[in-house]
């Protein structure tokens, strides 16, 4: 490594005391990095569980009139799958990545409220355990949207529905506390010189993610509390036989539910905006437009919830308004896609695994965005709503969208978190299996929906090509799952045997690459002054200016070599 | 012999541009696009239609969106693919250090706004033919036998001449019930059927849907869009079938264990056949009512009803 004159700290705060080790150090930790790792490991366990549920459903649907799974179990599977993926994977996995990287990216030594941060994690785990405990009794079966009266005590008497309510309460509280923490950290703990205009784009999206959570989550927390009192304490908020309104639930649920979509995808946008410039080796195209579009999306997200309710008895003028606001969201989203392509344009693109996941994401998310426009046209939605077209759409934006960016983020930041590189060959195999497996699974589901197959049915008759199309989808889902498996093997293997990464293996732009990999407990011995949105580039340029020497990507050091050759902080 | 991590990484670096997979990627994309645009595959990617004018109008509107979407899809995916091919590190050694282009950015923002405005106008132009029921054709069920709704509200549109055949749809776990006009003034004695609805051709049929228990959704794809059937609310739609035949659908909103089996169908028959069917249905129902009343009298006379109730 071409060493540069990094300021030598007068007092090295880390390694003075022995770092605590063992499982107690994880349980008692308030270190944002350890909490981040716990978030990531926990949410990935839930991702595997949710994925297994999906595969079981695809097995059942692989053939018409299949009798592998009975209808009750099938209903439980899709309820568990949807709730797991949303509340226990995609939302908290971002909290995990943000936990680890947000303080590093803004040059902070920890989150603003470290103990609250630990509480957020433990509440999430508690929510997950309460929810999955229901598997040993009767799991919930009213779908992840749990519309009453189906979710009321009369039609869902089992405690599984209550477990679902506690899942929302606990994970919701976890998310709200986490969001307040992120907001406070970003607002107060940025490095000297990091004005709002120099905030990394991932941090911008975490900021918007936090604001959305703070506004949207209390609404669903309130709604499930009303459902809980309806079920057990004699109230009738959603009970039409006693003067309540079943439609009220849908309004409350989707007032949360639509911002939730952006809660799940915006940090992914942030990851793409970080990864593309690094591997295209040029600055992000239109920083201001990308940051502004995140904020615009967040504002519009609160005006479109009724597009999930186009088939309810609602006045046409409301439908037309919601159609227009939903169309408007396509504008800032489109702007982002164009800016990302602009970032790749005239670059010198290195096709690493994180970049592949980002490009795959753009290709897939575009289709999800386009199918979203079909669904926003409310008369067309009257045909497509509640059909497999919607199932395809949600997976294009959430699975091909959010989950691909989660993988991009993990492939990008794994060296920082573990100090070791992931295997690129395994990474590429995983990406291509996931990419083609994904398209094979979900493209055909648009056709199923157009042919009239409703969602959430455990069997279908052998008419037309339904059997063939479903079989294609089932085969695709197993290709997709094998791709995920390859990545999991890659993660597990590389933690032990991956090449040593050094502080900055990608020659990246943001501050997290300024410190060692993995970073010490205090993150930075000295926090540099920030002069642009790409501080690492400034440092490299400065060193080049002083030494007159071109800096290449640091040469990695073999595992187990002596400390002398190891890069120092 | 295990390779050292260093060689491992060097190899990794060398392999960063994987040519076969790039070829695979572009090949696959080309096949996908061909499939999506081949004329034979057109029906494959459009909704069910052909039973009723509203379904046909939805289909037309869908196709308008599809054409615009296809252009956007090809242009954007094309630009993405081109950028990945043209500006790969292999072909383009030096990256241009540009931060943005205000004119271009304003341009594509306005372009996106223009596209959604076109879509909005197309939707509002097509809305009338999807939402407003037409009059029944002269050969449809003649006006005297049509009950007709007494009023129209924001959700319930009537045909211009206010004459229609209103059928009440009742959703319950897990069967659809249909109540036809033709009962007494108080609504009693109206003919009804389960699961299969029988309607006359050339006649505007208004659906007035309610639920007895949980949320259901009424959907016959070839006869137009779906409506959510929510307990405590009325929801309305309409269709007008020209061709006799069987149109299939099923409940589209998760309603419990039997959701997948909560099927619905509409059998369209000639107006004369419809009248005959209604009369037959009325007769069968009244016969069944008489038989039930008779059985009840017998049970009451023998005290069987009370003992049955006490069990």
Helix-strand sequence of chain B: HHHHEEEEEEEEEEHH
Mean pLDDT of chain A: 92
Helix fraction of chain B by DSSP (H/I, runs of at least 4): 40-55%
Rounded to the nearest angstrom, the radius of gyration of chain B is 30 Å
Q: What's the helix count of chain A?
A: 15
Q: What is the overall shape of chain B? A: elongated
Strand element count of chain A: 0
Structural class estimated from helices and strands of chain B: alpha+beta
Give the neighbour order of strands across the main sheet of chain B: 3-2-1-5-8
The major pleated sheet of chain A works out as: none
Radius of gyration of chain A: 24 Å
- Most extensive interface: A-B, 105 and 101 residues
Strand fraction of chain B equals 15-25%
Shape of chain A: globular
Instruction: Calculate the mean pLDDT score of chain B and round it.
Output: 84
**Number of helical segments with 4 or more residues of chain B:** 6
Number of strands of chain B: 10
Please render the helix and strand layout as text.
The complex is a heterodimer of chains A (569) and B (311).
Chain A: H1 23-27, H2 32-61, H3 71-106, H4 114-133, H5 160-188, H6 201-232, H7 246-280, H8 287-301, H9 316-344, H10 353-376, H11 378-384, H12 388-418, H13 424-450, H14 466-497, H15 535-547
Helix pairs in contact in A: 2-3, 2-4, 2-14, 3-4, 3-5, 3-7, 3-12, 4-5, 5-6, 6-7, 6-8, 7-8, 7-9, 7-10, 7-12, 8-9, 9-10, 10-12, 10-13, 12-13, 13-14
Chain B: H1 5-14, H2 19-37, H3 53-86, H4 102-131, E1 165-172, E2 175-179, E3 192-194, E4 196-200, E5 204-211, E6 216-218, E7 227-229, E8 235-240, E9 245-250, E10 263-269, H5 271-302, H6 304-310
Parallel strand pairs in B: 1-5, 4-10
Antiparallel strand pairs in B: 1-2, 2-3, 5-8, 6-7, 9-10
């Amino acid at each position: 490594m071409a060493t540069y004159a990094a300021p030598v700290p007068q007092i090295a705060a880390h390694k003075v005391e022995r770092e605590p080790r063992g499982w107690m150090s994880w349980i008692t930790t308030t270190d944002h990095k350890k909490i981040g790792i716990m978030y990531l490991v926990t949410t990935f366990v839930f991702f595997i569980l949710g994925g297994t549920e999906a595969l079981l459903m695809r097995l059942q649907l692989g053939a018409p009139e299949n009798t592998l799974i009975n209808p009750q179990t099938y209903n439980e599977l899709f309820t568990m799958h949807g709730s797991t993926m949303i509340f226990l994977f995609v939302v908290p996995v971002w909290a995990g990545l943000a936990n680890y990287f947000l303080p590093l990216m803004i040059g902070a030594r920890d989150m603003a409220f470290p103990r609250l941060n630990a509480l957020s994690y433990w509440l999430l785990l508690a929510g997950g355990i309460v929810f999955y405990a229901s598997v040993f009794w009767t799991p919930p079966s009213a779908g992840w949207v749990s519309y009453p009266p189906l979710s009321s005590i009369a039609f869902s008497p089992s405690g599984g529905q209550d477990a679902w309510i506690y899942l929302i309460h606990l994970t919701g509280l976890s998310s709200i506390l986490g969001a307040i923490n992120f907001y406070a950290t970003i607002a107060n703990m940025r490095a000297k010189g990091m004005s709002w205009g120099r905030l990394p784009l991932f941090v911008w999206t975490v900021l918007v993610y936090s604001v959305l959570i703070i506004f949207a989550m209390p609404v669903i927390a309130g709604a499930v509390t009303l459902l809980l009192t309806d079920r057990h304490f004699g109230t009738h908020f959603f009970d039409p036989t006693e003067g309540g309104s079943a439609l009220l639930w849908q309004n409350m649920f989707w007032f949360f539910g639509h911002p939730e979509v952006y809660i799940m995808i915006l940090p992914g946008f942030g990851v793409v905006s970080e990864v593309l410039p690094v591997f295209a080796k040029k600055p992000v195209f239109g920083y201001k437009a990308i940051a502004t579009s995140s904020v615009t999306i967040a504002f519009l997200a609160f005006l479109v919830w009724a597009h999930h309710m186009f088939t309810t008895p609602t006045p046409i003028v409301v439908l037309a308004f919601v159609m227009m606001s939903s169309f408007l969201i396509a504008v800032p989203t489109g702007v982002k896609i164009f800016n990302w392509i602009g970032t790749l344009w005239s670059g010198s693109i290195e096709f690493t695994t994180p970049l592949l996941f980002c490009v795959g994401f753009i290709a897939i998310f575009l289709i999800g965005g386009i199918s979203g426009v079909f669904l926003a046209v409310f008369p067309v939605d009257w045909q497509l709503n509640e059909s497999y077209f919607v199932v395809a759409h949600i997976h294009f934006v959430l699975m091909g969208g959010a989950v691909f960016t989660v993988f991009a983020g993990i492939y990008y930041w794994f060296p920082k978190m573990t100090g070791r590189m992931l295997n690129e060959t395994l990474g590429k195999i995983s990406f291509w299996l996931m990419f083609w497996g994904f398209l094979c699974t979900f493209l055909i589901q648009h056709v199923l929906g157009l042919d009239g197959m409703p969602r959430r049915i455990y069997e279908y008759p052998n008419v037309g090509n339904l059997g063939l199309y479903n079989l294609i989808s089932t085969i695709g889902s197993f290709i997709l799952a094998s791709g995920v498996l390859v990545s999991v093997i890659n993660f597990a293997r590389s933690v032990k045997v991956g090449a040593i990464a050094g502080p900055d293996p990608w020659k990246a732009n943001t501050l997290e690459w300024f410190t060692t990999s993995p970073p010490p407990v205090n993150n930075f011995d000295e926090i540099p002054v920030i002069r642009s949105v790409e501080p690492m580039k400034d440092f490299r340029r400065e060193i080049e200016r002083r030494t007159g020497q071109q800096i290449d990507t640091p040469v990695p050091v073999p595992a187990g070599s002596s400390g002398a050759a190891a890069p120092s902080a | 012999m295990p390779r050292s991590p260093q060689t491992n990484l060097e190899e990794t670096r060398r392999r960063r541009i994987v040519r076969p997979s790039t070829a695979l990627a572009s090949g696959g994309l080309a096949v996908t696009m061909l499939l999506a645009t081949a004329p034979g595959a057109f029906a494959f990617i459009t909704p069910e239609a052909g039973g009723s004018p509203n379904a046909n109008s939805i289909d037309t509107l869908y196709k308008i969106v599809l054409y615009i979407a296809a252009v956007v899809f090809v242009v954007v995916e094309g630009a993405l693919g081109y950028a990945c091919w043209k500006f790969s590190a292999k072909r383009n050694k030096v990256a241009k250090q540009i931060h943005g282009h205000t004119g271009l950015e304003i341009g594509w923002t306005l372009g996106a706004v223009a596209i959604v405005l076109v879509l909005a106008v197309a939707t509002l132009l097509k809305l009338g033919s999807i939402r407003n029921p037409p009059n029944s054709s002269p050969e449809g069920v003649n006006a005297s036998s049509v009950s007709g709704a007494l009023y129209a509200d924001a959700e319930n549109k009537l045909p211009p001449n206010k004459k229609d055949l209103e059928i009440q749809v009742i959703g319950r776990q897990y069967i659809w019930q249909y109540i036809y006009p033709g009962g007494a003034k108080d609504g009693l004695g109206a003919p009804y059927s389960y699961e299969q609805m029988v309607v006359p051709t050339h006649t505007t049929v208004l659906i007035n849907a309610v639920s007895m228990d949980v949320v259901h959704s009424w959907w016959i794809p070839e006869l137009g869009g779906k409506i959510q059937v929510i307990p405590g609310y009325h929801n309305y739609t309409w269709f007008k079938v020209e061709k006799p035949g069987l149109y299939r659908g099923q409940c589209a909103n998760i309603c419990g264990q039997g959701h997948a089996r909560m099927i619905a169908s509409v059998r369209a028959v000639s107006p004369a056949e419809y009248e005959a069917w209604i009369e037959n249905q009325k007769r069968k129902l009244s016969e069944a009512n008489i038989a039930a009343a008779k059985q009840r009298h017998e049970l009451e006379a023998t005290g069987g009803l009370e003992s049955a109730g006490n069990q």
